[in-house]
Amino acid sequence: MKYSEIILISFITYFYLVLLLRFLGKKEMSKLGILDLIVFLIISELMTLSIGDDKITFFHSALAAFVIVLVDKICSYVSIRYKPIKKLLEGHPTYIIDHGVINQEKMKALNYSVNDLCQHLRTQGIGSISDVEFAILEIDGNLSIIKKEDSHYLVPDSLINDGQINDDALKILNKSEKWLKELLKEEGIEDINDIFYCILEDEQLFIIKK
């Protein structure tokens, strides 16, 4: 392959990758999850194959990269609508500290040590575990912290998200869907699909309708 061809393919590859990343969307660009990282690594590898290899054309690499991105978009679309698939593909947040109590079993299952926990707390200006009401290990590996002095939630997670009930949040509260629906009826809401967002604050529901 001539130098001029390498320069041209590299130039086209750059702008093609920009278009692909724009197609993936701002969510993927602002926060890299495990699946997003895999997709980025694959498409970057696929596109570089066409540079310096006469057997692989730019079209072949571009098509393969587009298919990978398209599959990722389809998986994202499906996971939004089906919670079991979302958990399978993305995992789910884990409560390391719940109402001031450390869940040692979950920490062992995640191979997450006390040193890891303390390090994350220090980076957020917290010197002691005793100051923490909730510590949630998010699916992207970040640790979300809510201090005791700032907490007015029974659980710092939505009970309903875009018309779907959060079973994990109800489990933490030790409540049932029937309990939640009864509270909604008191607010004059019969259909859960009408709710965009719902969280329990100080024993009362905060609700945003669609």
Secondary structure elements and their pairing?
Elements (H helix, E strand, L loop, with lengths): L2 H22 L1 H5 L3 H16 L8 H24 L1 H8 L3 E5 L2 E2 L1 H6 L4 H10 L8 E6 L5 E5 L12 E2 L2 E2 L1 H7 L3 H10 L8 E7 L2 E6 L1
Helix pairs in contact: 1-4, 3-4, 4-5
Task: Please summarize what this structure is.
This protein is an alpha+beta fold.
Question: Any overview of this molecule?
Answer:
The chain is α+β, with helices and mostly antiparallel strands. The protein has 3 domains: 86 residues, no CATH class; 59 residues, CRO Repressor (2-Layer Sandwich); 50 residues, bsu07140 like domains (CRO Repressor, 2-Layer Sandwich), CATH 3.30.240. The chain has 9 helices and 8 strands. About 2% of the residues have low confidence.
Attribute tags:
extended, four-stranded antiparallel beta sheet, alpha+beta, 210 residues, 9 helices, 3 domains, CRO Repressor
When the domains are counted, the total is 3
Percent strand equals: 15-25%
Mean pLDDT: 82
Largest sheet: 4 strands, antiparallel
The H/E string reads HHHHHEEHHEEEEHHEE
Placed side by side, the strands forming the largest sheet appear as: 2-1-3-4
Coarse morphology: extended
Helix content bin: 40-55%
